[in-house]
Design goal:
Number of domains of chain B: 1
Helix content of chain B: 25-40%
Shape of chain A: globular
CATH topology of chain B: Peroxisomal Thiolase, Chain A, domain 1
Shape of chain B: globular
Number of domains of chain A: 1
CATH superfamily of chain B: Thiolase/Chalcone synthase
Strand content of chain A: 35-45%
Oligomer: heterodimer
Structural class of chain A: mainly beta
Structural class of chain B: alpha/beta
Distance between the termini of chain A: 27 Å
Number of helices of chain A: 1
Distance between the termini of chain B: 19 Å
CATH architecture of chain B: 3-Layer(aba) Sandwich
Radius of gyration of chain B: 19 Å
Largest sheet of chain B: 9 strands, mixed
Number of helices of chain B: 13
Order of helices and strands of chain B: EHEHHEHEHHHHEEEHEHEHHHEE
Strand order of the largest sheet of chain B: 3-2-4-7-1-8-11-10-9
Number of strands of chain B: 11
């Protein structure tokens, strides 16, 4: 299990766990995720913290049959969902039988078998 | 400005060489390339060397000096790392050094050794090309990332696994008789479609293999080639590099590869060519969908239009635009840090007429090499032309 917190990343996970997710926005409207000193798209350093939408739309997903060692013995399902100004990659934690592109999901926090936290996603209707 | 000629080129056999060290593999590739060039080792001014996961698989950092000694070279040596594009960026740096007039002779190459560790460990090492915080920790593997791109492509443009299978079948067929290729055997569409799933919608035969091997080229200035009466008919006339967000989630599109387009635009402009001038190319087909994305990123096809290029015979050996006549990463193999250089080794031989598939392109004068890192967060494009 990862003992060392990481500024920005773990703060976002804490916020997602509290159903209070956020993203960074620059004056031009580009979205990004922490940690980020400047906008990755235009370099503007005036970043504001904006609330992340409660739900996003799945734009793609995959079930990984040959997993990384962190998920040994499992077949993790990973989605990328569109939340407007930002997209999030997360491990899908619900039964994926009904998962398809266009599904509505909500962000959450998931953990690997070793206990390492990361971004997760679940069906919005089952929140 | 000096024109950059390829004086020598060579690769080790690609495949499983788990008992051969990286220094041994690179030493062999360098020896072949130097012997092919006729250039004395003492004339080599610089070594540009690509490697990705050597710190994981061989626990060996600081490989520049190690590989210089393996090649019998005392010139300044630097390791370049840009994941699977490590060889491509080493090549671009080498070409720039010669073009600028800073040096006359550069040995450029790359090596990867991965079969000395477990498949799980090698996979973990390759996954380091992804964003650790937002991708790897959520379980995204290298095949998983390309599977995400493939499904997004199918959703946006259509296409089927059968279309992708045609890419794998084509590239395996091209590798027949290529004596350095890892897989010199044909496969059928059924083989591809019925192979075990790695990350849906991609199966085992949609993926390139894990490969041990090394490649090297000797680049020389045109004036050096003339002064030493070298037979170096192939010139690098254009070189470009592009960068994109490391994480897929940060990109505007999951079905476009702007790093490839940026690299290609620079290379086309430098070479003063258009995509229509290209006679053959080697592209980074680490997965079948990657070949499709590359052809579109290079502006050879419109977005959404390259998915059936292989199935339609347009990119086969007898098609209008042969792609991956070497077998590509899919069948030739993908010794990661060497791949960008290996593509140029293959193209040099194809253009010189001493490749097993040279007969497929007897009149070719313009070739392109496309090398990509990660999910194309890094890309290089080199244009090769036969000198008059």
């Amino acid at each position: 299990m990862r003992a060392q917190r990481e500024d920005g990343y773990d703060d976002l996970l804490d916020a997602l766990a509290d159903e209070d997710g956020y993203y960074y926005a620059c004056p031009a409207g580009h979205g990004s995720l922490p940690p980020q000193q400047v906008c990755p798209t235009c370099g503007d350093d005036e970043l504001t913290t904006e609330p992340l939408a409660d739900t996003g739309t799945v734009v793609t997903f995959t079930e990984i049959a040959v997993p990384s060692p962190s998920f040994s013995g499992q077949t993790p399902v990973v989605v990328i969902a569109d939340f407007g100004p930002v997209r999030l990659t997360g491990r899908f934690v619900d039964d994926s039988d009904r998962l398809e592109v266009g599904c509505s999901v909500t962000p959450t926090v998931a953990s690997s078998p070793e206990g390492n936290r990361h971004v997760g996603a679940r069906f919005a209707s089952e929140r | 400005m000096q024109a950059v000629r390829i004086a020598g080129a060579g690769s080790t056999p690609f495949g499983v060489s788990s008992e051969r060290t990286g220094r041994d593999l690179f030493g062999e590739a360098a020896r072949i390339a130097i012997d092919d060039s006729g250039v004395p080792r003492a004339d080599i001014d610089r070594l540009c060397y690509g490697n990705f996961v050597g710190t994981v698989t061989e626990r060996q950092g600081h490989q520049g000096p190690l590989m210089a000694a393996a090649a019998g070279v005392t010139a300044p040596a630097t390791r370049y790392e840009s994941a699977c594009a490590s060889g491509g960026v080493a090549l671009k740096s080498a070409a720039e050094a010669v073009r600028s007039g800073a040096v006359d002779v550069v040995l450029v190459g790359g090596m990867e050794r991965m079969h000395n560790v477990t498949t799980e460990r090698a996979t973990e090492g390759l996954a380091m090309a992804a964003d650790d915080l937002y991708e790897s920790r959520a379980g995204v593997t290298f095949p998983g990332a390309y599977a995400l791109m493939a499904r997004a492509y199918f959703a946006e443009f259509g296409g089927t696994r059968a279309d992708l299978a045609a890419v794998a079948v084509k590239n395996h067929r091209n590798a027949l008789g290529n004596e350095t290729a890892q897989f010199q055997r044909e496969i059928s569409p059924t083989d591809v479609l019925e192979a075990p799933t790695v990350a849906d919608p991609l199966g085992l035969y949609d993926a390139c293999p894990i490969t041990d091997g090394a490649s090297a080229c000797v680049l020389v200035s045109e004036s050096y080639a003339a002064a030493h009466d070298l037979n170096a008919p192939v010139e690098i006339t254009g070189a470009g590099q592009g960068t994109d967000s490391l994480a897929l989630q940060q990109r505007e599109s999951l079905t476009r590869t702007p790093a490839t387009t940026r690299a290609a635009t620079t290379a086309y402009d430098e070479a003063e060519i258009t995509p229509a001038d290209i006679d053959l190319l080697e592209v980074h087909d680490c997965f079948t969908i990657a070949e499709v994305l590359a052809l579109e990123g290079l502006r050879l096809y419109d977005p959404g239009a390259a998915i059936d290029a292989a199935a339609a015979g347009e990119t086969t050996a007898d098609g209008d635009l042969p792609v991956n006549l070497s077998g590509g990463l899919k069948a030739k193999g993908h010794p990661v840090g060497a791949t960008g250089v290996s593509q140029v080794v293959e193209l040099t031989k194809l253009l010189r007429g001493d490749h097993v598939n040279s007969d497929a392109v007897p009149d070719a004068t313009v070739a392109l090499a496309h090398n990509a890192g990660g999910t194309v967060a890094s890309a290089t494009v080199h244009v090769l032309e036969v000198c008059a």
